[in-house]
């Protein structure tokens, strides 16, 4: 106190709060980034080109603000504008950035964290596979931590219809293609299946309706499995994830709950990564 006046304490070094004007500038910068991203995200497969007015109406923003942000995005090559029509579309910079993402990404490496999480949660073997002709090929396998366990080998091929992994994929393919695959499976393993082609097709229709496939001791005795498909942007099955184990642990009563959980996880994967990106990843994986 000096002369009856209370002096405010000196601010402590290192503990000073950001100045109000600095906080305002930061919040404005973040908002500008959000608006620019909103513009980019308004372009879709169904609407790859849009006018200034359409963009402004879609994201509920003034045309003046949108025009200013579009100019910046165009300068950085994230947006291009057709000089003839005045319509905007995504720019070639995205192709360059996508190539960086895909440069070192293959399906099995990308999916590994999801597979490990599933195996840890359920204590069983979890595998990732894709269709290869009339067979499934296993790209990644996380073995169960339990003493008694079942696991395919990475790179192993098995007939598609006799595995949950394969049925999860076949259930969403055109019927003529499915019949050809089943016919090939029956030819390759003539004494393996006790059921007829119509019964097989009925099984696949049930698989599609519930969203996951079940295989109870169909390829090997005492092994049960459940699997669900991962889809691309056009709702085509591109890969499947399966939980596999001995039938005394993966009992018939337990399979539906596991299947439902697996279906939700594969749906989340499709949404999280994006169907278009998944298609590109699978294509790159097949080329290797």
Task: Give an account of the 3D structure.
This protein has helices at 20-41, 52-59, 63-75, 93-102, 107-122, 164-170, 175-188, 197-210, 255-273, 275-287; strands at 79-81, 88-90, 125-132, 135-142, 157-159, 213-216, 223-231, 237-246. With 288 residues, the chain is α+β, with helices and mostly antiparallel strands. The chain has two domains: 20-99, Orthogonal Bundle (Arc Repressor Mutant, subunit A), CATH 1.10.10; 104-287, GAF domain (Beta-Lactamase, 2-Layer Sandwich), CATH 3.30.450.40. The strands form two sheets. The protein has a six-stranded antiparallel β-sheet, with helices on both faces. The protein has a two-stranded antiparallel ribbon with strand order 1-2. Strand 6 and strand 7 (223-231) form a beta hairpin. Helix 1 (20-41) crosses helix 3. The longest helix is centred in the first third of the chain and has 22 residues, at 20-41.
Question: What is the tally of beta strands?
Answer: 8
The stretches of 5 or more residues where confidence is low (pLDDT under 50) are: 1-14
Q: Cα distance, first to last residue?
A: 78 Å
Count the helices. How many?
Answer: 10
The CATH topology annotation of the largest domain reads as Beta-Lactamase
């Amino acid at each position: 106190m000096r002369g009856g006046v209370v002096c405010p304490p000196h601010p402590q070094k290192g503990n000073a709060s950001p100045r109000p004007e600095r906080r305002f500038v930061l919040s404005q910068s973040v908002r500008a980034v959000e608006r620019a991203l909103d513009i980019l995200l308004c372009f879709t497969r169904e609407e790859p080109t849009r006018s200034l007015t359409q963009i402004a109406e879609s994201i509920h923003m003034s045309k003046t603000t949108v025009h200013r942000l579009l100019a910046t995005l165009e300068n950085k090559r994230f947006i291009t504008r057709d000089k003839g029509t005045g319509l905007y579309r995504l720019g070639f910079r995205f192709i360059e950035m996508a190539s960086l993402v895909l440069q070192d990404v293959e399906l099995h490496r990308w999916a590994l964290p999801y597979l490990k999480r599933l195996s840890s949660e359920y204590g069983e073997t979890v595998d990732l596979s894709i269709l290869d002709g009339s067979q499934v090929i296993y790209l990644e396998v996380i073995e169960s931590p339990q003493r008694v366990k079942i696991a395919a080998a990475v790179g192993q091929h098995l007939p598609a219809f006799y595995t949950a992994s394969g049925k999860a994929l076949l259930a969403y393919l055109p019927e003529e293609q499915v019949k050809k695959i089943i016919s090939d499976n029956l030819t390759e393993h003539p004494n393996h299946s006790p059921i007829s082609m119509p019964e097989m097709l009925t099984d696949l229709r049930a698989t599609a309706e519930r969203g996951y496939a079940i295989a109870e001791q169909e390829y090997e005795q005492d092994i049960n499995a459940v699997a669900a498909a991962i889809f691309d942007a056009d709702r085509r099955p591109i890969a499947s994830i399966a939980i596999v184990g001995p039938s005394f642990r993966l009992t018939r009563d337990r399979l539906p709950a596991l299947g439902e959980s697996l279906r939700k996880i594969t749906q989340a994967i499709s949404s999280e990564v994006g169907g278009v990106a998944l298609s590109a990843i699978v294509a790159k994986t097949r080329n290797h």
